[in-house]
Amino acid sequence: MTEFKLLVETINGILWNDFTLYALLLTGVVFTFWSGFSQYYALSHGAKVTRGDFDKKGDPGAITHFQALSTALSATVGLGNIGGVALAISLGGPGAVFWMWVVGFLGMAIKLTEVSLAMIHRDLTDSENPSGGPMWVVERNLGGKGPVLKLIGKLIAGTFCFALIINTITAGNMFQAWNVANLTQSYFGVPTLLTGLILAIVVGAVIIGGIKRIGAVASRLVPFMLVLYVLACIFVLVINFDAIPKMLALIVTSAFSPLEASNAFIGGTAGYAFMYGMQRALFSNEAGQGSSAIAHSAAKTDEPIREGIVAGLEPFIDTIVVCTMSALVILVTGIWNRPAETFITDYNFIQTNETTWQLSTNIDSSVDQRQRVFAIYQGVINLESGNNFQKVYGTVGENNVVKWDEISSSEKPELNDKSVYIDYVGATLTAAAFDKVIPGLGKWLVTLASWLFAISTMISWSYYGEKGVVFLFGNRGIILYKIAFCVLAVLATSGFIRTDAELNMFANLGTGFCIIANLPIIWLFGHQAMKEYKDYIKKLNAGEFIKNN
Prior knowledge:
The chain is an alpha+beta fold. It has 2 domains: 38-337 and 455-540, Amino acid/polyamine transporter I (Up-down Bundle), CATH 1.20.1740; 342-431, Immunoglobulin-like, CATH 2.60.40. The protein has helices at residues 2-15, 18-34, 39-43, 45-51, 65-76, 79-92, 95-120, 134-142, 147-188, 192-207, 210-239, 244-254, 270-285, 292-296, 304-311, 313-332, 427-437, 441-473, 478-496, 500-541, and strands at 342-353, 356-363, 372-382, 387-396, 401-404, 407-408, 414-415, 419-422. Strands 1-2-5-4-3-8 form a 6-stranded antiparallel β-barrel. Strand 1 and strand 2 (356-363) form a beta hairpin. The longest helix has 42 residues, at 147-188.
């Protein structure tokens, strides 16, 4: 298993190089200017379309604009907004939030482009179950242009479908199940495997019904969970109102300069704030991945660009509103750089072989058994933080004895101090932030929100993966795929993933694959979306579209 995780890390190193992030930023900048800042029309006209103001009876498609947006949002507004933001801050510091904002704004133009393309080229052969997405864009553009281009088109489309399935398994399934399972175990002692089984059963019951059932469930679940979570965040922020300006300033300044270590936060460079902020925002709002285009392709409309404009709302709602709420709650409560929960009474580093060390300690308080904790030691340079601070993780056993993970180091490590911190991973960090304001608030609110977010995300992502399977293998693979999807939710909660770094690693694998596969499609065919978009805006401004009474 260690070898497999090393392989994933190696692949991520290739997928998430600086070029990938810069290419995505450039894509957002280019299409923002090319579309004349389409973000404006997404926020104004897109809201009216979602309300149903331009719906016509008999429009081709399976679900309404609102249901399509809800389905896409149910895939994006999930544990990425609770756990993903927490990961970004714990690993990259407050500066990561700034880059989440940048991705959110630019992502609105990217979403509009990729969804518009999918709508232009969607397959309406089965009007009750339309199909669309980057694979269809490639198929329709290159399929009839000779055997060589047809083969190239099939390779590009197949590569995207493969990436989509990987993303479905990791980011859309395992990340969600793992976060919920660990949060529920942390607060209620429920075995993680049992949570995985419950999630698999609930999600399986929904996805059997196809896109119409998914759209119906999402359109009811998403508004409820969004309002519930945002109101709770506003409550915390009102109580800590005085700290908000200082935290906003810290977000901006630390986005461009390194931040020193402070208590549980080991420090971070501006470069890693950029990387983690970009990764988590892209994971959360899916801009550039091409995945949400699959949900929007089922919308009822005879104007492809209209649904593209609706899709532009997603990154705004997901990243600029919901992710910011989570981030500010974590920052104003100080949970991200909290003081130690307990302390080491005595310790010793035992060398187990030439390059590994084992920490032996006792701790001086009654931290719950089986609780994951970490201490900070000084060793080799940590490329993520820009200093020599590293975390060593352990699990509390009987009589406050901690079983620490092995440390790989050519030199003997030294503890930074005798502080020990509870390892709040992902959503548990956000829950701890709420608990600091009102004890028990995080326990109930974040647990409930996490379950709702995870279920909604998993059902939407299962549909995305299903469309990838159908494109590659036809309808005969659907049942086997749905069974495998549910089984993987259980696997994710079986102890396969242990730390926030591993969780981040697996989530990034799928996201990175999809971006690498989808960006060339946007660049090759994005001009089609821009031409149609500008024609649509001219008609809109000329009053050619009649609004429903």
